[in-house]
Amino acid sequence: MNRKQFITLAIASAFTATAPLARAGSVAGFGGSTEITQLANNIELVQQYAQQVQAYATQIQQFQTQIQQYQNMVTNTLNIPSQIWGTVQADLMGIANVVKQGQALAYSATNIGTQFQNTFKGFSYPAGFNFKTSYKNWSQATLDGVKGAFEAAKMQADNFATEEGVLQGLRTQSQSAQGQMQAMQVGAQIAEQQVQQLQKLRQLMMVQMQAQNSYLATQEQKDAARTQAQEDFLQYVNPNKGFTAFRGGSK
To answer: Which residues, 6 or more positions from 237, have their beta carbon under 8 angstroms from its beta carbon?
Structure first.
C-alpha cells in the first residue's frame, strides 16, 4: 500500500466512524438508502482531500527543488576565503639587484649600453692606455658578473621551499573547492603560478647571458687590445734608421 492509498483509507475510515447513523435511521423505510448516499458522499469527499494532499506534496517537492537550486547557486558563487598569490615581483627585483654588484655589467642596469662602451672600447689603444689596469678592470667585470649569476641561482634555490608551500596550499584548495567559482579561482591561481615560474626561468636565462656575454666581451677586448698594441709596435719609426715603418724581411 502506497502513501496515497494509506491516506485515503484513513480518511474514509474516519468519516465512516463519524457518520450520523441516527439521522439515517430516522427516515422510516429509507434508512438504508440514505446511509448508502451518505457513504458515497463521504468517499467522494475523501478523494478530494486525497487530491489536495497530493497537490500539497507536489508543491512541497517543488519548493525543495527550488531551495536546492538556490543552494547550488550560492555555492557556485562562493569565493575562496584566502586566495594564494605568489611574490614574484619581489623575487625578481631581488635577483635584479644582486647581479648589479661590483663592476658587473648587469642586465638590469639602466645605463647598460654606456657602461659596456666605457668598459670595452674595442679595437683601440687610446693615449694613456694602461694594459695592466684595463686587464684588471675587464677581469673584475667578468668575475663580478659570474658571481652575481651564482648568487641569483642561489636565491632561486632558496625560493623552492616557499614555492612548495604555495603549491601545497593550492592542492588543499583544489581538494576542498565548493562550486564552480572556487574551482575557477583555484585554476586561476595555478595558472598565475605557472606564469611566475616562466618569469623566473626567463630571469635565470638573462643572468646566464649576462655572465657568458661578459666573459666573451672580456676575451674579445683582450684580443683586440693585443692586436692593436702589436700593430702600433710594428709601425714604430726608428729615428736612427731610414725606414719609415717596419717591414718584415727588410734589410
So the answer is: 243, 244, 245
Sign of CA dihedral 138, 141, 143, 149: negative
Label residue 127 left, alpha or beta by phi (over 0 means left) and psi (-120 to 50 means alpha).
beta
Decide: pTM greater than 0.90: no
Instruction: Enter the C-alpha cell of residue 177.
Output: 573547492
Instruction: Answer left, alpha or beta for residue 105, where phi above 0 means left and psi between -120 and 50 means alpha.
Output: beta
Alpha-carbon gap, residue 13 to 1, rounded angstroms: 16
Asked whether the beta carbons of 42 and 19 are under 8 A apart, the reply is yes
Q: What is the pLDDT of residues 125-151, one digit of tens each?
A: 666 677 788 888 888 888 888 888 888
Owner of C-alpha cell 496515497: 4
Q: Give the closest residue to 187 by CA, choosing from 84, 99, 107, 91.
A: 84
